[in-house]
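Researcher: We're teaching a course module on how sequence relates to structure. For the next exercise, students receive a sequence and then see the predicted structure as C-alpha cells, so they can try to spot secondary structure elements on their own. Here is the exercise chain.
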Amino acid sequence: MDALEAKLNNPTQATHKRKEPDTSTSDVSQAKKRQRRAAATHLHATWYAWYAHEPQHWCAPISRQQKSDVKLLVAYMKLFLGDGFMLNPTVADFRDQVMETGTRAEHAVLAFLEGHDISSRGSGAVLKHLRALQRTGALNARIQRHEQLLQTPAICDPAPGYTQNVLEQVNS
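Model: And here is the predicted structure for the students to work with:
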C-alpha cells in the first residue's frame, strides 16, 4: 500500500528505466549483428523436407506462411535444374534421389547467387534474394525454360500440380 500511495503522491518520481549504453565507450562505427535465433536451414534440407518427409509439406499441419515459403523456395530451386529431374516415390531409393536432386539444385542456386554477389546460404535469406531477383527480371529466362520442361517428360514431380508452376515471368 505504501508503494501505491508513494506513486500517487509523487508522480514525478521516475520509475526504473533501463540503463542506456554509454555511447562514449561503444564504437558506433561497428554495427552490431543481430543474434541468430536458430541455425540456418540448408536448401537441400528444405527440398528434402518438401518431398520426402511424412506427411508431405503440401498437406502437413504447419502454418500457411511456412507452406508458402517452402513451396516458393522449392519452385525457385527447380528453375536451376536445367535438364529437369525425375522423382519417383515408388522406387526403393526415392529418398536418395530426393537428396541428390536437392543437393544439385542447391549448388546451382548458390553459384547463381554468388554471380550476383550474394553470399547467403540459409533458406529464408535465399528465398528473400530470389524474390528480389525475380522482381528485377533476372530469372525470366530460367522460368521460361522451366515452363518448357514442364511440357515434356523431362520433369517427373510427385508434388501436386498446384505447387509446380507457381512462378511467372516479370515484364521489364
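Model: If you want an answer key for the exercise: The helical segments are 2-9, 43-52, 64-79, 94-115, 123-136, 140-150. Residues 58 and 69 are 11 Å apart (CA to CA).
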